[in-house]
Task: structure prediction
Amino acid sequence: MLKTICYISDAARPLDYNIKDNIYLKAKSNNTINNITGVLVYKNSNFLQVLEGEEEVVDSVYKKISSDPRHDNLFKVINTNIDERIFEDYNFGFTIINEKADLKNLYEYLEWLKLGHNKIANEVIGMVENFIEN
Result:
C-alpha cells in the first residue's frame, strides 16, 4: 500500500552550504534507493519534505528523520495512505529544491496537479505552496 508523509521542521542550527549540500545528496541517494518519490525544500532555516512510497518504507525513512539531530520541532502535517504518487512524474521522482528556478518549476507542476482534483494531492499541494510562498 502506498503512503505519503509530509513534515516540516526547523534546522537545529543554521546550515552552511556544505552541510546543506550533504543533506541534499544523502536524501536524494537514500530516497532513490528506497523508491521514495517526493520533494525536499529548505527555506528560512526550515525543512518541508514530502515522502511517497510503500508504507513500511516511508514509515522507516520518517523514523530515521525523526531521530536526526539536524531537525528540531519536527511536525508531521500529513500522514495518510494514497492511491497514487503525486510526485512520481516530477523531475524523475525525488526532487531537491535548492534555487529560485527550482521553486518556479515546482510551483508550475503544483498548478498542473491541481487540475486533477485529487483531495489528498490538493492537501499536499496546499502545504507545499504555503511553505514556498511564505
About this structure: The chain has one domain: 2-133. The mean pLDDT is 83. The domain at 2-133 is CATH 3.30.70.100 (Alpha-Beta Plaits). The longest strand covers residues 71-82.
